[in-house]
Amino acid sequence: MILLLLYLSSLFLSLFYHWHRNLTDKAVTFYSRRAPKFTMAPSNQQQANFQLRTNMDWEEIRRRLRSEYGSEVQSEAEISGVLADVDKDLVDCDAEFRRLQSGIIALQNPRKRLEEYKVSLRFLRSPIRRLPNETILRIFDYACEMNELTSKQLQTMPALAISGVCSRWRDLARSCPELWSRIELEMWTIPRHLPGLPILDLYLDSSKQSPLTLEFPSINAELQAAHLEVCAKLAACSDRWKKLATGPYEIYQAMMAQPFQFPIIGTALSPQYRL
Asked: Cβ contacts of residue 178 below 8 Å, gap of 6+?
């Protein structure tokens, strides 16, 4: 019976030893693969001086984990000293990482400027830059139909949208008053906090002496003071009216309130009148 117990105890210790050794080998192999590799090409004195205090000898660690038990384990003081060096190396690594990260951030700004410069250089090769001004103006004239000045969307005001692309397009758009002379107004959407509709002044000034095409779709409310002010501003330019199309008769009356001259008008449309 005693011999059987001794045999079982020996077998248990042998199995435990092999299991522990196998587990230790796997742990050492795993961490050795994940261990950081510091391969630095020193470009300055600070990089050249960055060195680790700890000698990460994984083979030695593996050997000691397998063989040191009981009284053969090294003293706590020695292990504590090595751990202290490891902690210092970690602090130094963090400091070096922050230094390198600052260098990366410092490089990101000029790289961004280089990307923008590259885009600008590519713009110089754009085919549209080779088109003469006359051809571009023909395209603008085709694209700019009516400008709905009371809309909150820029695409409904093509003359203004084109003039905001670049300095060349702005100069071309301002040199072509016909683009600014086709005006559409939704009277009931005119904001009351903008009396006189300032954008209308921009279009009237940019259209210079070009004949005006004015359209007023249907209105869903009675004419207010802001509406009458816009009508008076347009009525002052009656000598430039080429086409006038008013939806509600109230707008037509407001536009014709004064005896103005209409030397070039070709069409005047209202619900009750047609010239």
From this structure: 141, 207, 210
Q: Of 24, 26, 35, which Cα lies nearest the Cα of 67?
A: 24
The pTM of this model reads 0.55
Query: Rounded to 5 degrees, what angle do the CA atoms 215, 216, 218 make?
Result: 140
10-20 pLDDT, tens digit each: 544 454 445 44
Phi-psi region of 29 (alpha: psi -120 to 50; beta: other; left: phi over 0): alpha
DSSP 44: S
d(CA 71, CA 73) in angstroms, rounded, equals 6
Half-sphere exposure at residue 224, Cβ-oriented, CA atoms within 13 angstroms = 14
Q: Which residue has the tokens 């922050």?
A: 98
The CA-based angle 128-133-139, given to 5 degrees, is 70
Tell me the pLDDT tens digit for each residue of 201-247. 899 999 998 999 988 876 666 777 777 788 888 888 888 888 888 76
Segment (H or E) for 242: strand 241-246
Contacts made by residues 202-205, CB under 8 angstroms, sequence distance 24+? 202/160, 203/147, 203/149, 203/159, 204/180, 204/233, 204/237
| CA nearest to 211, candidates 264, 274, 148 | 264
Q: How is the chain split into domains, by residue range?
A: 76-125, 135-269
